[in-house]
Amino acid sequence: MHPTNTSKSYELTQAGDRYFDGLVDKFSRSLYQAPRGELRLAMLDYLLPQMLHLTGQPVLDVGGGLGQLSAWFAERGHSVTMAEPSEDMLAHARAWHTERSAAGAWPPEQLRYLAAPLQSLLQHAPGPWPLITCHAVLEWLGEPARAVQTLASLLAPGGQLSLMVFNRDALRFSNVIKGNLQKALSDQLEGKGKRQRLTPISPVTHDEMCQWGAANGLTMKDVAGIRIFQDYLRHPPAQENEQATLLALEKQYCRQDPHWRLGRYLLYTFTKPEADV
Ligand SMILES: C[S@@+](CC[C@H](N)C(=O)[O-])C[C@H]1O[C@@H](n2cnc3c(N)ncnc32)[C@H](O)[C@@H]1O
């Protein structure tokens, strides 16, 4: 269950995945302690109840990272199994969850942890699950298409999959805006997963999501863009009221064509058809 590092400077597993060992501080600083992390969580808070049919069903959170999404569901009464192969990330999530739970946010038995990668879940948590979440994980895998196949197999008939992926088209656009014209022209956008870099190794396109969903018998029910404007601003909001206005804008256009298509992340709800009777 441990990552097999091929060398110190190229820290991918044998499957070509980037576990986030050694990245806790960087990830937490550059995302969740920054306005973009705040916006991401605010948008999920806004969108998940619209895009999912939530009935308190059990949730499998795949690649749960620092545990924010697992906490979101636990607070709403779901029992959550959080799977995460990075022991660093899992340890931080657990410690934070323990504090929240001790403060009365949810009973401790509501959260369960698996130190395991997605690829092992058919063995370790076969379910089948009525609700699976897998947010910002596919883009860190060597074979994201195979991961969709695994997620589809873990879903119960009638089950829902909330999938969020890093959008390759938005990565191109933001590179152009930043002046990385040659990089954009050669379309060499992916990161290499080296050292502490947080450019995803397998950014995903909407076309790929359509294909991978259909290839695995899943129905795409809904899609939205997360951070459709924020990363393109010349002048990031300096004051709280500007940040609030930006959030209002993101909410207003996150599901409207063409804006959702350039969201930094694309958020999908897929469902698995009910079994034939
Ligand atoms: C960008 S973080 C996202 C964390 C969390 N889902 C969120 O939205 O904040 C990507 C996570 O995927 C995990 N990961 C990498 N390879 C994985 C694999 N094969 N199976 C499951 N998770 C994996 C990393 O360790 C990391 O915690």
UniProtKB/TrEMBL annotation:
EC number(s) for this protein? 2.1.1.-
GO terms for molecular function, please?
Answer: tRNA (5-carboxymethoxyuridine(34)-5-O)-methyltransferase activity
Whether Zinc counts among this entry's keywords is no
Record's catalysed reaction(s): 5-carboxymethoxyuridine(34) in tRNA + S-adenosyl-L-methionine = 5-methoxycarbonylmethoxyuridine(34) in tRNA + S-adenosyl-L-homocysteine
In which residues is S-adenosyl-L-methionine bound?
40, 63-64, 84, 135
GO biological process assignments: methylation; tRNA modification
The record's keywords, sorted A to Z, are: Methyltransferase, S-adenosyl-L-methionine, Transferase, tRNA processing
Note the Pfam families from the entry. Answer: Methyltransf_23
What role does it play?
A: Catalyzes the methylation of 5-carboxymethoxyuridine (cmo5U) to form 5-methoxycarbonylmethoxyuridine (mcmo5U) at position 34 in tRNAs.
Q: Which HAMAP family match?
A: tRNA_methyltr_CmoM
Q: What is stated as this protein's family in its record?
A: Belongs to the class I-like SAM-binding methyltransferase superfamily. CmoM family.
Query: What is the protein named?
Result: tRNA 5-carboxymethoxyuridine methyltransferase
Which organism was this protein described from? Answer: Vreelandella andesensis
Lineage of the native species?
Bacteria, Pseudomonadati, Pseudomonadota, Gammaproteobacteria, Oceanospirillales
- From the UniProt record, report the name of the gene that encodes this protein: cmoM
